[in-house]
Amino acid sequence: MAEPGGGRPVTVSDVQQLVRRKDEIEAQIKACYELLEGQKGVGMHEPLVDAEGFPRNDIDLYQVRTARHNIICLQNDHKALMKQVEEALHQLHAREKEKQARDEAEALAEAMSQNQSLPQPFAKVNTVTPGSPASVSGLQVDDEIVEFGSVNANNFQNLQNVATVVQHSEGRPLSVTVIRGGRRVHVGLTPKRWAGKGLLGCNIIPLQR
């Protein structure tokens, strides 16, 4: 497993492994303290000699010394391990924040490039009659028109341009490109006679520029 600052980035699995090791050490420390408790309750600092300075014969000195030594070693290991856990969590958190910032920056860049690449609309659909050729083609209210057959923002002068294209395309599909919800949408619209007025059944208004 990579140490913090090593070659491989820390993973959640690494942190879980460290935490498991920490739990094991804590269990070992607890066992050592229980062993000391079993030896007449001697802790880490009670004297191991009697009043005359002789080794106490009411306890297992070897066991007590070993338990005390193990506790000191294990506590040092525990301290070092806790530092590793902290650093690993910090690394994970920093990487998560970095990823979030990167994702946000990418989303923003994509949105901006989309806006930049969208052509200039010259007119807008403000009504569509149900059952009309416009409705059947999928044209919707608030669609912003960027291309209507041969008409676009560069050559559009007034709505007569659109009317002329419609009259010359009766019964033939027209390629219409609109901006809908910030995206470019292509619609195949065939101007033709129907139950209502005109050849389209929608109302188009020029956009103020």
Descriptive account of the structure:
By secondary structure, the protein is of the alpha+beta class. The protein folds into two domains: 12-115; 123-206, Pdz3 Domain (Roll), CATH 2.30.42. 47% of the residues lie in helices and 15% in strands. It contains four helices and six strands; from the N terminus they run ααβαββαβββ. The protein has helices spanning 12-38, 61-117, 133-137, 159-168, and strands at residues 123-128, 144-148, 151-152, 174-180, 183-189, 202-206. Strands 1, 2, 3, 4, 5 and 6 form a six-stranded antiparallel beta sheet that branches. Mean pLDDT is 90; it is low at 1-5.
Which characteristics define this entry?
chaperone, single chain, 26S proteasome non-ATPase regulatory subunit 9, 6-stranded antiparallel beta sheet, 2 domains, alpha+beta, PDZ, Pdz3 Domain, rod-shaped, coiled coil, PDZ_6
Summarize the structure.
The chain is of the alpha+beta class and 209 residues long.
Order of helices and strands: HHEHEEHEEE
Strand content: 15-25%
First CA to last CA: what distance?
62 Å
Number of DSSP helical runs:
4
Query: What kind of assembly state do the chains in view correspond to?
Result: single chain
Q: How many distinct domains?
A: 2
Helix content: 40-55%
Globular, elongated, flat, extended or rod-shaped: what is the shape? Answer: rod-shaped
Largest sheet: 6 strands, antiparallel
Overall structural class, as computed from helix and strand content, comes to alpha+beta
Tell me the Rg in angstroms: 40 Å
Mean pLDDT: 90
Give the uncertain stretches in residue-range form: 1-5
Protein name: 26S proteasome non-ATPase regulatory subunit 9
Organism: Oxyruncus cristatus (sharpbill)
Subunit structure: Interacts with PSMC3. Part of a transient complex (modulator) containing PSMD9, PSMC6 and PSMC3 formed during the assembly of the 26S proteasome.
InterPro entries: Nas2_N, PDZ, PDZ_6, PDZ_sf, PSMD9
